[in-house]
Write a structure and sequence with these properties.
12 helices; about 290 residues; Rossmann fold
Length: about 290
């Protein structure tokens, strides 16, 4: 394994055979085999020599080995013990000393615990569709420890993360992520860049976390309102809030005081309007003695 090349399909197949590993569809195991794409992802992280990187799902090390060349410390978290065995063998054979390989479900441990004493880390991840939303929530919950996030996800998901209001892709996930971070869509990754080849293309997104822009109570209501608004996309905001509050007059009054027409739909609201709506909702409920 001292000369293992994760960008060689022949060597990837041989390693999987040797360790009797069949890629799991359930875990979204599609290994990156295009070095040019890997370099694009690594460069998107803008790594400095003193940086620490938390990599989610290192697989066979296509990104891990490149990250280790540029960062002070790479902490790679892999759920599949079989892949951990392969990658640890590669790391040991190549004498790489700045990679910490952890066999764990990244969603089961708080980010500070995963960092193993490091105060912060940039996140680089090639993640399956199934865990996109829970992983985003998990990472952004600990965003004070994460200065930058670079994700490779399904193209459709990347478009949702970066979507603007009044577009088909814009939804609750868009608002949630854009509240917590500045989002940049960095481009498509063809499905031919992976083995086994998935059915759909992927894309790279870069997120720069920002400080919370609302106090905790308003933030709680922000996401409650967003879930209600996007629960049924064809509903007007008046109808969505009527369902939430059980009071059509209150729903209309809150919207009117926020400057939002009652016939507006959730996908038409900007992040700033959603935040203003949350603030007005909290003011209304506090004035009524309900908070």
């Amino acid at each position: 394994m001292s000369r293992f090349n994760p960008f060689s399909v022949q060597q990837v197949r041989a390693a999987l055979r040797e360790f009797q590993v069949r890629p799991s569809k359930g875990w979204g195991q599609n290994f990156l085999i295009d070095r040019r794409v890997a370099l694009r992802i690594v460069e998107a992280a803008n790594l400095q020599p003193e940086d620490v990187v938390l990599e989610v799902g290192p697989g066979l090390g296509a990104l891990t080995l490149l990250l280790a060349e540029r960062a002070r410390h790479v902490i790679a978290v892999e759920i599949d013990a079989r892949l951990v065995a392969i990658l640890q063998t590669v790391i040991d054979a190549q004498g790489i000393e700045n990679i910490t390989l952890i066999q764990a479900n990244v969603l089961s441990q708080p980010v500070p615990e995963l960092l193993r004493g490091e105060p912060s880390a940039k996140v680089v991840a090639n993640i399956p569709y199934a865990i996109t939303s829970p992983l985003m929530e998990h990472l952004l919950q600990h965003k004070t420890h994460i200065p930058l996030i670079v994700l490779t996800v399904q193209k459709e998901v990347a478009e949702r993360l970066a979507a603007k209001p009044d577009t088909e892709a814009y939804g609750a996930l868009s608002v949630f992520v854009q509240y917590h971070a500045q989002v940049e869509y960095l481009g498509r990754v063809p499905n031919t860049a992976f083995y086994p080849q998935p059915e759909v293309d992927s894309a790279v997104v870069r997120m720069t976390p920002v400080s919370d822009r609302l106090p905790p109570l308003e933030q709680k209501w922000l996401f409650k309102l967003v879930r209600a608004g996007f629960g049924k996309r064809r509903k007007t905001m008046r109808n969505a809030l009527t369902t939430l509050f059980g009071d059509a007059d209150r729903a209309s009054a809150i919207l009117r005081r926020t400057g939002i027409h009652t016939s507006t739909r959730a996908e038409q609201l900007t992040l700033e309007q959603w935040m203003a709506l949350a603030q007005e909702t909290v003011r209304t409920l506090q004035a009524a003695g309900e908070l």
